[in-house]
Model the fold of this input.
Amino acid sequence: MQDSTITEINNKNRPFLLYGCLLFLAVFSFLFRYFASDTVETGGDAIYKWSLIKQFILFGDIPLGLNHHTCRWAINIPLSLVAKCCGTEPTGYYIWPFIASTLSAIFSFLLVERLRTWRVGLATGILVILSGPMLRQGTQLLPMGTALLFLLGALYFLVRWRDNRHGLNLLASALFLFLAYGAKITIVYYLPSFLVLIYMFSKDKQSRLVNILFFLGIFLACFAMETMLFNALAGSSFGRLELVQLSHHPIRAAQIAPRSWQSQSNTLLQYLANFFVYFKYSSNCSAALYYTAFSVAVLALVRKWRSVYITAIPFLFGFIGHAYAITSVFPFHRPEQILPRYLSAIFELALITIILFLSAPRFRQLTATLKLPFSLDDRKIRMLLFLLLAIPIVAYAGKHLHMDSGYAKTARAMKEVREARQNGVPVLILLPRDSDKRAYRRNKLIVKFRAFYTDARHFGNTHWPTDPNIDLDDFPMVARKGKTFLLVERNGFKGDLADKGLYLVDY
Done:
């Protein structure tokens, strides 16, 4: 049985209804992101990237070298625009993640509303806002947060092209997909899925070839221009791919330091068994979602549920790509770690695929076959399954809400640091447990403080995760109420640090 697209009767109030939904999602997303925000992380996507943008906005400095952080132009360009408009205060760090996550929810709404109804689209947008990956992606400068925004936008414009055959929509879809690639290289896993969808949605053989070549040509033309640009800037013949490979070696680093994930498969049997890798390296709930969505996606292809194709097929390619992509054979090395933050796209695609599956009659034959002592029709089964999907997401999101949010803590810390400088009060930051014994960790925290709470100029030589110019002897540790703090600014104070000081716990 083919799955037809569910539509609603057009009326004069429909545009206002859609605008109302968009406004609600935008307001709800920003409010939720604010109250669910955490303090700034200490990873390179936070410290290094924000420091680079800050140096460029304040002093016009550009980095002396290119690496996997500076090459993510699809993140750095909008982040620069936001910082230019809103300033380089530490709280400005949150603005682009807030915007990107909100736009992701809006594109998921527009996508599902076009495939189903506005009600289903609204429920999808809300669940995307509350979903586990978005709790972190929506408040931190992580690559997949921006990549997901553009990936969902590419899918939305592809559906618009399917419905009206306007070439501009196909052009927009290709450009959005390349923007997603500009934020995270592993988005290339999804490129074949777009070609498959174009093949399925084209009317005849000739149009299939023309549409596929048009889409692929746009993507490859953008790729060629990007490669030539990076070759001119850094002398890398293979452009951004080469720069990322040279500067980002998570697998090789993992072979030196013990990690809790499989970095390679030594035999062909082990490599084939990577189909089950998500059980080992994801939470149980996420793994259950992935494998349920995999079953639904395969079933959609078998039953020809065409309105489920639009997310099911990209999900399948992402699922297989993350599990089986390799950079070498015997042993089979992974291109990157299997970490939840790298799987955000397949999580959201899995979520939308299951919602599309549950939003149309699926169980009529089953309810007719089963003889139960109570009434249980197709609609009730789908509602129960939807609640089974939604309740854990909502419950988990609720645990991350707090009135004293990370945004508020960061703003308060900046205000207190500024007052301490004016009053000549030393500033000390809390050291996490065992950090007092690890020079690397202390150096990293000093780099973070300088990146967010000072306007020091690095002259293009921004350091992360450590700064070789930092002498830890200049940053003594102070014990206070059973905790260890690290002095980061004296502000002219020469007395006993235990008597006076600003002790930052959250910063």
